[in-house]
Write a structure and sequence with these properties.
Blueprint lengths: L5 H12 L26 E2 L7 E5 L12 E5 L2 H11 L3 E4 L2 H6 L1 H10 L6 H5 L2 H9 L5 H5 L34 E3 L2 E5 L18 H18 L8 E11 L10 E6 L10 E11 L2 E13 L2 H33 L2
Length: 333
C-alpha cells in the first residue's frame, strides 16, 4: 500500500514551488541515491532517483539532470500497480508538478491505490501481460551489486540452490545458485554445467538445452521459495514458451530473474499458475520463458495426477494404433 497520500504529498510540493499559481517553475537538482539508513519517503517521488526503479507516465517527462537509474515508462494506472506489486519498496512513481496540475484525474486514480492491496493488479494479470511489462523492466544492477550474486566478471558465484526445491537428488545436477530476493522477484546465478547433460563438442556459447533446463529449475525453485509451495508438493509443466534474443557467453556471470504467480490456495487443492523467467548477461536480456504449470500440495495429489496422465497416454497410444490399423486395412483390404 502507498505509505502517504498521493495528493497531499504533491499538493505540499506544488505549494512550495508555486506551480499551480504559475508564478515560478521548479528547479530540480540531481539527487544522489539515498543510503539504506535514510528514511523511506514512500512510493510517490518528487525527486526521481531515490529508488532503484522510477516509473513515469509516457506523456510526462523527467527533469534535467535527474538521478534516476532505471526509468520505466507506463501508460496506465493499472501498469503502475503491476510494477508496484512486482517491485515493492524498490520502485517510485514520479509525477512532475506540471503533470500533477494538468492531470488531476490520474492523480485521483493513484490516490485510490492506497486503499487496495499492492499486489491486486499483479495477481489478476495474465502471463502475457506480465511478460510484456517485464521486457520493459531493466535489470536492477545497483541492487544486485549489493547482493551475494556474481554480477561482474571477476565475481564469485555463490553456492548452489537447495537441490530439494528443484527436485534433484544429486547436487551436481543443479544449474542455479542460492537465491536472492527483491520484491516479488527471485534472482539466481545460472551455472553452466550439469552431470545430466553431455554434448559431443565444445561450444563458444552456452547451449540452449542448458538454458531451458535452468529456467525449468527456476520455475520449480521459485514456486517453492516465493510461492510457498510445500516441499512435499509437486508441479507439472503444461506449457513452455521461450524466446531467445542473444547468445550467452561462458566468460561472464549469468543472472536469472524469476516471478511466479502461484500462491498457496486456502484449501488443499491443485492450482494453476505460471512462472516467468528471464536470463541476463552484462545487463542484457538474452532469453525469456513463460512456463505454465499445475502445482500440487502434496505427493499424494501429484501421484494421482501422474496416474491420470499415464492412463491418458495409454488411451492415446491405443487410439493411434487403431488409426494405423484402419489405414492399413484401406490400403490392403
Amino acid at each position: 500500500m502507498l505509505k502517504q497520500s498521493v495528493s497531499s504529498q504533491i499538493q505540499s510540493f506544488v505549494r512550495e514551488s508555486s506551480l499551480c499559481e504559475h508564478t515560478e517553475r521548479l528547479s530540480l537538482v540531481r539527487h544522489e541515491r539515498k543510503s539504506k539508513n535514510k528514511k523511506d519517503n514512500g512510493f510517490l517521488s518528487l525527486v526521481p532517483g531515490e529508488k532503484h526503479y522510477t516509473l513515469i507516465f509516457e506523456d510526462d517527462s523527467l527533469p534535467d539532470n535527474h538521478g534516476a537509474c532505471n526509468v520505466v515508462k507506463v501508460n496506465s494506472v493499472n501498469e503502475v500497480m503491476i510494477y508496484y506489486g512486482l517491485l515493492g519498496a524498490s520502485c517510485e512513481m514520479y509525477l512532475s508538478p506540471e503533470y500533477f496540475c494538468n492531470h488531476k484525474e490520474r492523480v485521483e486514480e493513484l490516490e485510490k491505490i492506497k486503499a487496495s492491496p499492492a499486489s491486486g493488479a499483479l495477481d489478476t494479470a495474465d502471463a502475457e501481460v506480465v511478460a510484456a511489462l517485464l521486457r520493459k523492466l531493466p535489470l536492477d544492477i545497483a541492487g544486485l551489486l549489493e547482493s551475494p550474486l556474481a554480477v561482474k566478471d571477476e565475481d564469485v558465484v555463490p553456492g548452489i540452490v537447495d537441490p530439494e526445491v528443484i527436485h534433484k537428488k544429486n547436487p551436481a545436477n543443479a544449474l542455479l545458485s542460492e537465491p536472492f530476493y527483491a520484491g516479488r522477484f527471485v534472482y539466481y546465478n545460472m551455472l553452466r554445467h550439469t552431470e545430466e547433460f553431455r554434448f559431443d563438442h565444445e561450444s563458444d556459447h552456452v547451449q540452449g538445452m542448458l538454458i531451458l533446463e535452468a529456467m525449468r529449475q527456476a520455475a520449480l525453485a521459485t514456486t517453492h521459495l516465493a510461492g510457498d509451495l510445500p516441499s512435499a508438493g509437486g508441479m507439472t509443466l503444461m506449457s513452455y514458451c521461450t524466446n531467445f534474443y542473444n547468445y550467452i557467453e561462458h566468460s561472464a556471470p549469468v543472472i536469472l530473474r524469476a516471478y511466479t504467480s502461484y500462491t498457496v490456495p486456502e484449501e488443499v487443492s491443485d492450482k494453476d499458475g505460471f512462472v516467468i523467467c528471464q536470463v541476463f548477461q552484462w545487463g542484457k536480456l538474452c532469453t525469456e520463458a513463460i512456463l505454465g504449470a499445475v502445482a500440487f500440495m502434496n505427493k499424494e495429489r501429484y501421484g494421482k495426477h501422474r496416474t491420470r496422465t499415464e492412463k491418458l497416454s495409454v488411451r492415446n497410444k491405443r487410439l493411434f494404433a487403431s488409426k494405423i490399423q484402419a489405414m492399413n486395412e484401406l490400403v490392403n483390404p
